[in-house]
Amino acid sequence: MARNNIHEVWESGVGYSVDMDARTCGCRKWQMVGIPCSHAASVIIGKKEKVEDYASDYYTKKRWRETYLDGIRTVQGMPLWPRLNKLPVLPPPWRRGNPGRPSNHARRKGRNESSSSSNTKKMTREKKDHDML
Ligand SMILES: [Zn+2]
Questions:
Q1: pTM exceeds 0.70 for this model
Q2: Which helix (H) or strand (E) holds 120?
Q3: Which band of pLDDT confidence, cut at 50, 70 and 90, is reported for residue 105?
Q4: What DSSP state is assigned to residue 15?
Q5: Pfam families under this entry (predicted)?
Q6: How far apart are the CA of 98 and the centre of ligand 1, in A?
Q7: Quick one: how many helices (H) and strands (E) in the chain?
């Protein structure tokens, strides 16, 4: 415990701040899910208390009964849903060509390379013939 019922729990080199009064943890799982995370559970077990006593009461049978006390509302078929004066969901915009990287970007040539490879081959052969003569 650090202070004011706030505990520091370390797991694989990372420290988590567990607030037992606010029922929150630095990993944010406890406040999101309503069930104590492993860091909070280690504090609760260290106090020799039950982990389930710190779970949110939304998980209790009492709350479940309250939720469905009036039963479940009926859902009408899709054609009977109210129409909003908005555009329907449109297909993605049409685009020319194939997706992915364009193929017409050739490798950048070095300083001593000519702009076209076939031209280079021809010139070397001519040069060779000239040297032999
Ligand atoms: Zn945690």
A1: no
A2: helix 117-132
A3: low
A4: E
A5: SWIM
A6: 46
A7: 4, 3
